[in-house]
Target: Thiazole synthase
Amino acid sequence: MNDSLVIAGKSYRSRLLVGTGKYKDFNETREAIDASGAEIVTVAIRRTNIGQNAGEPNLLDVLPPERFTILPNTAGCYTADDAVRTLRLARELLDGHALVKLEVLGDPVSLFPNMPETLKAAETLVKDGFQVMVYCADDPIQAKMLEEIGCVAVMPLASLIGSGMGILNPWNLRLIIDQARVPVLVDAGVGTASDAAIAMELGCDGVLMNTAIAHARQPVLMASAMKKAVEAGREAFLAGRMPRKHYSADPSSPTSGLIGT
Model:
């Protein structure tokens, strides 16, 4: 079955996107990402060396851009100006690479998105030629505004970054999915494989995660579980679940032609 994820005109086999932080070392990072099957990996430019710090270990030696699509992100930015400046640096380091993940945070405790600053940064980046995938609140109105600005994907949170609380408001996600004409990917809050499967069953185009894999007792094994969960959730969505029947049973075996009847 040809069921590719298409972002900014490029097709990907995997609908699981993964982060590169919080692992014990670069070797574990690569092993987990290989187990996940992910093709897009996101990198926090403010926290990870991809060439800006000469003489330090470079993540791109472990995750070469010819093998993976590197998705620089603005984790740690709290203003539109900081986010725009960070991604312009990333574009220079990655030889003009345009696909980026925008996130502008509201505070260091909840890490909830600052949506006015996010909208401001998105508008600037799109005008500057970036292909913007954007972390946002699970607000259908603001998600639509980001799409209309020209973002190539909207990425509403399932719950707070790193919380592992799963999808707290599936109804808002469905509202965003139903109106969107660009890919919708859950970003933040996934804790285990069932959370990823639920996101895909709701109709999300993909899932991005980091902490759920990196902070598992066995990150490589969890990465493999997440790969399967995303695939299973996508297949279930395409298959179409049976309708729910409240207060009504439906025998799975035939009720006619039985022995003795």
Notes: The radius of gyration is 20 Å.
